[in-house]
Design brief:
By secondary structure, the chain is α/β, with parallel strands linked by helices. It has 2 domains: 13-216, Rossmann fold, CATH 3.40.50; 230-339, Rossmann fold. 27% of the residues lie in helices and 18% in strands. It has 9 helices and 16 strands. The protein has helices at residues 47-50, 76-91, 107-117, 140-152, 242-249, 267-278, 298-303, 313-324, 330-339, and strands at residues 13-18, 25-26, 41-42, 60-64, 97-101, 124-127, 162-165, 168-171, 176-177, 186-187, 195-197, 203-205, 230-234, 254-259, 282-287, 306-307. It has an 8-stranded mixed β-sheet with strand order 4-1-5-6-7-8-11-12, with helices on both faces. The chain has a 4-stranded parallel β-sheet with strand order 13-14-15-16, sandwiched between helices. Helix 4 (140-152) links the parallel strand 6 and strand 7 (162-165). Helix 3 runs parallel beside helix 8 (313-324).
Length: 340
């Protein structure tokens, strides 16, 4: 394990922020693997780290307080507050890397938001668990250990925000949750993992993303109070324009259309999307399919729509909201989708 941080020979310093989720949840018994959230009980502050004493051999850990929530309860303000807190931690010189524990339901969204908005090249690693802390064969302790190993590894510097579960290192842009209960749920879709926190204690990488992130992006939300509303509408057989019109009426400044196949909305949805565009709403055409690109076809260009590339709708929503904080021009926003 590489040393770093303070005096020569000192262990790396890793800040730990707990935001809640399955990793620190407690069920009714060791076989409560599905309904534990209804109990609403969590490990006491500091107990999650105390359950993994081996962490002390890897890094000097400082726990940084933050509110703990189920990840499906997060709002944009929570993300903005996390960005400010992470910047404060690094600006104070207290940490060489940072681990953020998080519920798995929206972990990939938080990771991508941080990947686009953090202005640091130091390692920031998100980690969660698929089984609660009280479970038989809980996966949280080893996931946490591996996340700290990655955050403490100097080779993690400059790789953007990372996600570590099930011994696997993923990039924030491409990772997604693919199963409701399986410990191997997080996958890199078309592009695979970046590397592994492996069984012999080594952290190994095999490739890195070419998409810009963190210090290379044009998004800085530290002085931001909110983002413009962007809604997602999922297509299906017989879908009409009702939900699209409702989103516009609710004040949406952007709409992500999660179309079928390579990004196809129904004829009725297309009419509603055109109405939205004519009112100044920026439309991003995405797909409900699990992988693959949406191409900016001549029709999308003619209508002034943006193509999502291979971003899933919930990540396209994040990028579109950030883009709209800077510009309203579809061509310029398309450049951002092609860049990030």
């Amino acid at each position: 394990m590489a040393k770093g941080g303070g005096a020569t020979g000192a262990l790396p310093r890793v800040a730990l922020i707990a935001t809640g989720g399955t990793i620190d949840s407690l069920g009714n018994d060791r076989l409560d693997l599905a309904s534990y959230q209804e109990r609403g009980e969590r490990l006491a502050p500091g107990e999650m780290r105390a359950r993994v004493p081996e962490l002390a051999e890897i890094a000097t850990i400082e726990e940084v307080p933050f509110r703990r929530l189920s990840s499906h309860a997060l709002v944009t303000q929570d993300w903005i507050d996390l960005v400010r807190l992470i910047h404060d931690v690094f600006a104070s010189g207290r940490a060489d890397g940072l681990v953020l524990t998080h519920g798995t339901n929206t972990l990939e969204e938080t990771a991508y938001f941080l990947n686009l908005t953090l202005k640091t090249d130091r390692p920031v690693v998100l980690v969660g668990a698929m089984r609660p802390a009280s479970a038989l064969s809980a996966d949280g302790p080893l996931n946490l250990l591996n996340a700290v190993r990655v955050a403490a590894d100097p080779h993690a510097v400059g790789r953007g925000v990372l996600v570590v579960l099930n011994d696997t290192i993923h990039g924030a842009r491409d990772v997604t949750k693919t199963a409701t209960y399986r410990v191997e749920t997080f996958r890199g879709r078309d592009l695979g993992p970046l590397g592994y926190a492996d069984a012999d204690g080594r952290v190994v990488y095999y490739h890195r993303t070419t998409r810009r992130h963190t210090t290379e992006t044009e998004f800085d939300v530290r002085q931001t109070t909110t983002l413009l509303r962007v809604d997602i509408v999922v297509s299906y057989v017989g879908a009409d324009g009702t939900l699209i019109d409702a989103a516009v009426a609710a004040g949406a400044r952007g709409i992500v259309s999660a179309g079928t196949g390579a990004g196809r909305a129904t004829p009725a949805e297309d009419e509603a999307l055109t109405r939205a565009s004519e009112r100044g709403v920026v439309v991003c055409q995405a797909t409900r399919v699990g992988s693959g690109r949406v191409v900016r076809s001549p029709s999308l260009i003619r209508r002034g729509f943006v193509a999502s590339d291979n971003l899933q709708p919930w990540k396209a929503r994040i990028l579109l909201a950030l883009a709209l904080s800077r510009v309203n021009d579809p061509a310029e926003i398309q450049r951002m989708f092609d860049t990030y």
